[in-house]
Amino acid sequence: DKEKAYQLLLLAENKFGERGDPIFHFELHSNKAHIFYTWQNYNRAAKFYKTALDWIQDTEHDAKTVVALSNFARVNQLMEKHDTALEYFKKTELLLLEQNNPKLLAVILLRTAEVYEKKN
Fold first, then answer.
1. pLDDT > 90? residue 103
2. What ranges do the domains of the chain cover?
């Protein structure tokens, strides 16, 4: 039940949102974004994915940063904001190359190719 899930996330945010824990905020905003993504409300999803990214990007949690970057890039791809999608797919690609993660890198390169195809 996505509506209940969203209400629980809002309760958690009200109770613990004052804490400056980047992982908490990354998880909170990522999950809020996932809900809006499934409702195909990509504008709201993008807002929450970007907030999640802002919380996690200056930490040393590279795996979570990859998730945040790729989520934000993908939602921008779906909104046909091609330049923003390419910018964040490129950032994801660079981090994945550092991590030597060929499986996820293949997905990101496929998504990047899809964006270039849409741009002609």
1. yes
2. 2-119
